[in-house]
Amino acid sequence: MDDGSEAIDIAQVRQIASAHSQVMLHEKKQKSNASVSRNLGVRLAEAEVVFFLDADDYFTTNYLIRRLKHHEDVSIDIIFGNYAEVSGLSVRDYTFQYQSGSAGEDFLFLEMGDIRSSTISMRKKSDRRFLFPEFLAKHQDWGFLVNATNLGAQVAHDVGGGVYLDVGRTSRMSARLNLEASDLFIDAFLHASERHISGFACKHLLASLYSENQQAFNYYSSRILQHSLSGKFKLIKLYGDCLTRLGVFPLGGRLLRHVRNGFWR
Questions:
Q1: C-alpha 225: how far from its chain's center?
Q2: How many domains does the chain divide into?
Q3: Distances (CA, A) of 9 to 4, 83, 150, 166
Q4: What is the CATH number of the domain that holds 75?
Q5: Which residue has the higher pLDDT, 47 or 21?
Q6: d(CA 239, CA 207)
Q7: Contact (CB, 8 A) for 52 and 141
Q8: Does one domain contain both 54 and 147?
Q9: Model-level pTM?
Q10: Can you tell me the mean pLDDT for 101-125?
Q11: How far is 9 from 147, CA to CA, in rounded Å?
Q12: What residues contact 94, with CB distance under 8 A and at least 6 apart?
């Protein structure tokens, strides 16, 4: 599924597609967002099981074999799993424990779990469609899980690895904060639940600091329930609040980012 790639990039993809008869390339006439591409890809896909893979990411053959084995249970609609983030030569694993039947918003914002699009596979069923939210410019994978569990999808978690997300590019969408998209997500999926909104906001505190974005930090801080914070998030919020009071938020955020990058190496 191509979403308006540069001429040199799409030329290479066309060569790959023409060399493999089992590959179908669809070039969208109008550039949109990733959710539109994913939903269209599912509709056009001819296989019973559909995998998603963002352009920056990759997965292993063993992951595909293992996941297809899981999908032999035809009662399962959706499977997602763990992943590793890659930055240069550094790799960091992220593992979560999702219990089948759990609400997506509980897993994401109370248990502080995560889902990424490139870890998702889905069985196509003619009578049911689980879609990515096309009105969101960000948080689309979270919206997908919350929507799917609200609609009664049978969701399973794959504890194995094999999915790698390249987080080194600063232009990657997940590296950018979008307060308008956060407002839309809260209104659409969290139903004014203060605990869930607080968990959602906590997930953005570090990103606000790393990006030196004081406006975003203040926005997310204002949505947090102080009494519900874990020790980790209390420290993060205290650090950001101190930087704000001292008028050195960009400097403190830059310092924290350098410390993080040092651990990556």
A1: 24
A2: 2
A3: 10, 26, 38, 18
A4: 3.90.550.10
A5: 47
A6: 13
A7: no
A8: yes
A9: 0.91
A10: 97
A11: 33
A12: 82, 83, 84, 85, 114
Is 113 inside a domain boundary? yes
Is residue 162 located within the same domain as residue 197? no
Whether residue 147 sits in one domain with residue 53:
yes
- Give the CB-side neighbour count of residue 168, counting CA atoms within 13 A: 13
Q: 132 and 144 in contact (C-beta within 8 Å)?
A: yes
Domain identity same for 216 and 105: no
Chain segment 216-248, per-residue pLDDT in tens: 999 999 999 999 899 999 999 999 999 999 999
Q: What is the pLDDT of residue 173?
A: 58
Going across the sheet that includes 90-94, the strands are 58-59, 163-166, 83-87, 90-94
CA dist 8 and 28 (Å) reads 16
In a domain, 182, yes or no: no
Strands 163-166 and 83-87 turn out to be parallel
Task: State both tokens at 21.
Answer: 């008869």
Q: Name the one residue in this structure whose structure tokens are 């400097």.
A: 251
Asked if residue 249 belongs to a domain, the reply is: yes
Beta-bridge partners for 81: 158
* Residue 152 and residue 200 in one domain: no
Under DSSP, the state recorded for 186 is I
Half-sphere exposure of residue 260, counting CA atoms within 13 Å on the CB side?
Answer: 14
Q: Which domain holds residue 212?
A: 192-264
In a domain, 21, yes or no: no
Note the pLDDT tens digit of each residue in 79-89. 999 999 998 88
DSSP letter (8 states) at residue 215 = H
